Each structure stands twice: as C-alpha cells, then as structure tokens.
Amino acid sequence: MSEAIVKIRNLKKTFGSEEVLHNINLEVDKGEVVCVLGPSGSGKSTMLRCINLLEVPTSGEVWVNDTQVNAKGTDINKAREHLGMVFQQFNLFPHKTAQGNVELALRKVRKMSKEEASSIAKEQLERVGLAERADFYPSQLSGGQQQRVAIARALAMEPTVMLFDEVTSALDPELVRDVLNVMRDLAQAGMTMIVVTHEMGFARDVADRVVFMDGGSVIEEGSPEDIFENPKNERTKDFLGHLSES
Amino acid sequence: MWTNFVEWWESFSILRVFFSPTVAIETFPIVLQGFPITLVLGFVGFALAIPVGLALAFMKMSKVAPLRWVATVYVDIIRGTPLLLQILIIYMGLPLIPAFQAAMEPFADVSVLGVPFSAWFRAFLILSANSAAYLAEIFRAGIQSIPKGQMEAARSLGMRIPAAMAFVILPQTIRRILPTCMSEFILLLKDTALFAMVAMGEVMLQARVESARVFNMTPLTVAAIFYLIVTIPAGRMVARLENKLAEQDSGAAQPGKRSPRLNVPSTHVVSHRENTMQDVR
User: Fold this and answer.
1) Contact between B157 and A157 using a beta-carbon 8 Å cutoff
2) How many CB pairs under 8 A join A and B?
3) Contact A215, A39 (CB under 8 A)
4) Cross-strand partners of B116
5) How close, in Å, is residue B264 to chain A by CA atoms?
6) Which chain A positions have a beta carbon within 8 Å of B159's beta carbon?
7) pLDDT tens profile B134-192
8) HSE on the CB side for A137, CA within 13 Å?
9) Contacts of A143 in chain B (CB under 8 A)
C-alpha cells in the first residue's frame, strides 16, 4: 500500500463570486510525479498554489505529510519548508547572486551559519549545473539559468514535495530543455513532484500519472499512456487534439 | 587693484544691492554661524523622519482598517497644511503646556550650537513629523512597486512576513527609492529656512538680521550660497543615481535575460516623486 504524501479533499476556491475550483480531489504518493495538464484558466495553477497556501482554499482540506496545512492552528511557515515551489516567472531575488538566492532561506529560516549555507548552496547549484555561475546576479543569467537557480533554491530547503507552476512557459524554446532535464533528474532521484505544465513530451516521458483539468475540475486522470493514447473524456480528447494540430 | 574693482563694482547700484563684496566679507562669518544649525536641522530631522515614515507606510498598507485611517488622516493633514503653519503651532504651542515645560526642565541648561535643547527638540519633532508624511508615500509606492512574486517566493521558502520584508522586499525598495528620498532630503534642507520665523539662529535668520542691519541684500545672497553648497552636490548625486538605475534596468531588459515581471522600471517610483514634490509644497 502506498502512502499519500499530499491529499486534497473537496477543495473549492472562489475569487469574489466566481468559483474557480470545484471540488478537487487528488492524492499524490511519495516519489510520484504527477503532471497537471489543461487549458489556461482551468484552475491548475490555483490548485497548485492552494497546496502551499499562496491561495487560501475557500473550503476543503489540503494535507501534506499528515498535517492539514489549511487548518486553523497549523504553522504555515513550517509546512512550507517541506514544500518547494518553482514559479513561471522564476521570482529570483534580483539583489542577490545565484548563491545568495539559495542561501537566504537557509540562513534566515533554517538559521544556518554562513559556511553551512554556503556549502549547501554550492552543492545545489552544482546539482542544477550552475556551479560556475554562483556569483552571477539574476539579471546576468539567461531565463533557463535563472529557473535552474530557482529550482536549486527550493531544493536547498530539502522539501518532501516540489511544486512546479508552468516553469518553462516564460522561457525561450531553446532554454526549455535544460530546465526539463534538471526536473527529469529530480524525478529519477525519487522526488515527489506536482508539475503544472504545457510540456506534453515531459508529461508523457516523466509523469507517473497525468491529471487533466478543465473549468476548475479534474476531468480525467490516469497513466500517461491512458491519457495520451486513449483519452476517455471528450474535453481531454479535444485538448490533446488541438495540441497535436498546432 | 581689488579696491578699484570693488569701487567700480559697487558703483552699479544693482550689483551693490544684491552682492556687495564689502558687505559679503563683513557678514560672511555671521551667516556662517548659522550653517551648522541648518545642517543639523536638515540631517538629524531627515534621519528621524525615516523610521516614522516607514511606520506610516506600513500603517497605510495594513490590513487593520483603523491603522490605515490614522495614517491616511495624518498624511493628509501634514501634506495639506503649510510647514510654516506647523512650525508656528508646535514650536510656539508646546512651551505653553505645563507638562512639556516639566519634561524639558532637566535640560534647561543644555544648549547645542547656542540653541537650547527644548528648541532642538521641537524643531526635530516638526521636521520629522512633516518629512515622514512625504516619505511614507514614497516608501509605500516603493514597496508596492516590488512584484508580488518576490513576496510569494520568500513565503514559499518558509520565510515569515517580517523576514521577507527585511531581506527581500526592503533591500529592493531602497534601491528604487533612493533618488526620490534624496530629493526629499533636499526639500527638507531648504525648508529649514522657515525656522528663521521662530529665531532658531540658522542660516536664514542670521542672513535676514544682517540684511536688515546693513540695509543690503548681500547677506541673503551669501545664505543662498550656503544652501547651494549642499543642494547642488546632492542634486547631482540624485541625477547620477537615476542614470545608474536606468542603465541597470535597461541592461537587464535584453530579450530572454530577465522575466518581464522583474523589469518594473525604477521610473515607476521616480514619477511618483513629481506628485510628492509639486503638490502641496
């Protein structure tokens, strides 16, 4: 029996009077890579952001490591330490070097010494192939490099789950591959990952499970083969059909 | 040579009235006496205004409505009334309050640069209270110009809001608002001239007294030079800072080099300064 590390139960989210997520249920097992696909506006990013409470769920439960993150008494800062997040827009700290970006939370949240944080930062930058760029500022790095620094920054906190929010969407096509390779390595190393993406190739190759969302609901989920070769739902077929045409 | 030149120069009444070398030499040391007072008023007043302004900025952005109201009303009142009026009310008013007199009693013998402690206290109170209202708007606009993703990234790493503010948001804000803050400092320094109205003994007062005594405008021209000694270099620094920041921003704006969201230009805040400076004051 596998142990679910992230459990989403009856999750609803409304912005004003508009309900953008209707009753989402999702479980992610340890070491599993789940890719969330769907047209833009389908609520996939909002769902992801509800997991680390960047958006507060309107109702329902979000559990991570047997802690209900959206319960009243939960220290969300503690919970977030187990949840690494990588953003579409990288959101690197522009006033810090690559190294400084990775070190900051280690120093200020983990209260590590300068030496300790520095050695972990070096290790993580090495892991994403940017050891020699440690002293560069974000503005001196390409988008792909910035995104890999952002991944290193999240990994440095030793999260149990990594959340990827359309991390390649803002990148020039030739820079996408490097970022996806880092994510592939991460998946092979056994990291639990929830990946909101438009990269069908990545989802097909790397995902253990694919979740298709549309209009704020999970429409279909299954193995990549099931979803890509043999989609059951009309909307899934439609979405995948559009993609192959373009 | 020199005497001939002075004679020739002062034979033109317009030159003699506005800048007589004889009067300038005679009154320069007296106006100079006021210069340290002007500098202390400007620098210390501004330094005290920074924390107050920051507090007001956070109050204005607070989720707690009453805090927002208090800060808004405060800023509106300060920015909506002349500094001269504020000086007269506070400077003349405080000593009429027995509690204030009692509080100042222990410092009755303390005076710095010939100005009694109580006068310094009231002057700093007025200057910091006034400048803080302007700085609050600059700080608020600066903080809000930082993309939302920065706070989200910091929070997603487990940082609490105060830590995220201190290590992620404010360092970026300072970079952006530095030129605007320096302009605000220049304004404040010039505004210290208003303390001549309550006889603080700064440059403006010395110059006015001398000017009336010798019945000539030269001491006021000398006073102008003292203000320019500070304001021109400071103004140049603002311009250089602005150019440097603009350069950095455009340098980072090469295609594919930086995300569009990180590229909010520093002009966002700079343009705000024009509002702050030109209205009300």
Assistant:
1) yes
2) 95
3) no
4) B111
5) 12
6) 77, 104-105, 108-109
7) 999 999 999 999 999 999 999 999 999 999 999 999 999 988 898 899 999 999 999 99
8) 11
9) 256-259
Residues on chain B touching A146 (C-beta within 8 angstroms): 258-259
Q: Whole-prediction pTM value?
A: 0.78
For residue A74, give both structure tokens.
């939960």
CA geometry: angle B261, B71, B145, nearest 5 deg: 10
Asked if A87 has any chain B CB less than 8 Å from its own CB, the reply is yes
Distance from C-alpha of B122 to C-alpha of B200, rounded to nearest angstrom: 11
How far apart, in whole angstroms, are the C-alpha atoms of residue B223 and residue B204? Answer: 6
Whole-angstrom distance, CA of residue A97 vs CA of residue A130: 12
CA-to-CA dists, residue B8 to A56, B4, B219, angstroms: 81, 6, 20
Buried-exposed string B168-204: b where 16+ CB fall within 10 A, e elsewhere: bbbebbebbbbbbbbbbbbbbbbbbbbbbebebbbbb
pLDDT band at residue B255 under the 50/70/90 scheme: very low
CB contact under 8 A, B257 and A77: no
Distance CA A215, CA A196 (A): 15
Q: Which residues of B touch A141 (CB under 8 A)?
A: 257
Mutation target to probe the B interface, by most B beta carbons within 10 A, among A67, A69, A88, A139 is A139
Looking at residue A218, the DSSP 8-state letter turns out to be E
Residue B9 CB-density burial (10 A; 0-12 exposed, 13-18 middle, 19+ buried): middle
Residue contact B256–A143, C-beta within 8 A: yes
Report the amino acid identity of residue B259.
S
DSSP SS3 for A7 = strand
Nearest CA in chain A to B149: A91
- On chain B, the residues whose CB falls within 8 A of the CB of A104 are 157, 159, 167-168
Chain A residues touching residue B264 (CB < 8 angstroms): none
Whole-number Cα distances in Å, A76 to A226, B158, B160: 36, 8, 9
Of B159, B172, B252, the CB nearest to A105: B159
Buried b / exposed e along A21-58 (16+ C-beta atoms within 10 A): beebebbbeeebbbbbbbbeebbbbbbbbbbbbbbebe
Cβ separation B159–A157 shorter than 8 A: no
pLDDT digits (tens, 9 = 90+) for A14-46: 998 899 999 999 999 999 999 999 988 899 999
Averaged over A189-202, what is the pLDDT? 92
Q: Is A160 on the interface with B (CB under 8 A)?
A: no
**Separation of first and last alpha carbons in chain B:** 46
Would you say how long chain A is, in residues?
Answer: 246
- Cα–Cα–Cα angle for A46, A240, A242, rounded to 5 degrees: 100
ipTM score for this prediction: 0.90
The answer to whether residues A167 and A181 touch, using CB atoms and an 8 Å cutoff, is no
Nearest CA distance, A105 vs chain B (angstrom): 6
